[in-house]
Backbone:
């Protein structure tokens, strides 16, 4: 808040252009103009984030989450999350994503997290080859080409 006021005072004094003021605050020139207008209209309250304290419009109702958990507990217990999600979407007309359902089941303790997989196909560090740089340098210096004889 203090930084904005300082930059605004410098802009009002003519020390800064609008673009420079925006850059100092880490925003565009247009965003600085919006902030300036809101500050002039409502003071410091105009600069506060108006989204704070409001519920998301995409938030899933608590009753629906509880219904989904009850379905798993009483009808689908022991199913893996993928099959449970498919049946929720098809049979019960739920429209949430797989990851959301999996997260809710984990949080409720109904499904265990998958164990880490084995070392098969894991990347390993490349083995350093001594002299590889020397061969590349010699190829560049001598003009060697791929597919041609080195003689």
Residues:
């Amino acid at each position: 808040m203090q930084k904005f006021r300082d930059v605004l005072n410098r802009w009002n004094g003519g020390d800064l252009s609008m673009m420079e003021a925006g850059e100092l605050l880490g925003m565009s020139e247009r965003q600085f103009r919006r902030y300036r207008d809101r500050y002039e209209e409502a003071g410091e309250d105009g600069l506060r984030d108006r989204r704070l304290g409001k519920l998301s419009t995409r938030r899933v109702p608590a009753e629906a989450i509880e219904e989904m958990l009850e379905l798993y507990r009483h009808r689908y217990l022991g199913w893996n999350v993928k099959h449970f999600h498919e049946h929720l979407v098809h049979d019960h007309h739920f429209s949430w994503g797989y990851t959301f359902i999996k997260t809710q089941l984990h949080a409720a303790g109904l499904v265990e997290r998958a164990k880490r997989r084995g070392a098969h196909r894991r990347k390993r560090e490349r083995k350093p080859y001594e002299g590889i740089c020397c061969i590349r340098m010699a190829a560049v210096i001598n003009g060697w080409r791929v597919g041609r004889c080195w003689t």
